[in-house]
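Appendix B: a complete holo record

For completeness, this appendix reproduces one full record from the ligand-bound portion of the collection. The bound molecule is zinc ion. The inputs are the chain sequence and the ligand SMILES; the output is the full three-dimensional arrangement of the complex, encoded as structure tokens. No fields have been trimmed.
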Amino acid sequence: MTSSDRSFPEITEWVRTSCDPAQSRCHCGRDLRGDEVLGYLHDGGWMTNDGRMWLFIHCPACGYEMALWKMGVARDRDFRTLHYSEEQRLCDLAWAAPDPGGVRVITSRGRVS
Ligand SMILES: [Zn+2]
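The structure of the chain with zinc ion bound, as generated:
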């Protein structure tokens, strides 16, 4: 690991929830799902919101650097889409906000008085 490595919390979360459990183990036996995904700029890596990145997990137990493709992640997976799904989730939350209810309360109060 060097100081130029960046952390990718969204991809870390994706690996934790989406990676194949049968392929997520390090050589030492540790299940790497949930451990921090790191990356650095590399032409042969994956597309992310920060550009094309070589992505790997630095095993906290033995120090091995496990590239994501060794965990069954397709080399052509586009991790930029994670950004859009988060926007979609926030948009859904906005639609669920109970704003119309507040308007009805004000109207009924006016009728009562
Ligand atoms: Zn290990």
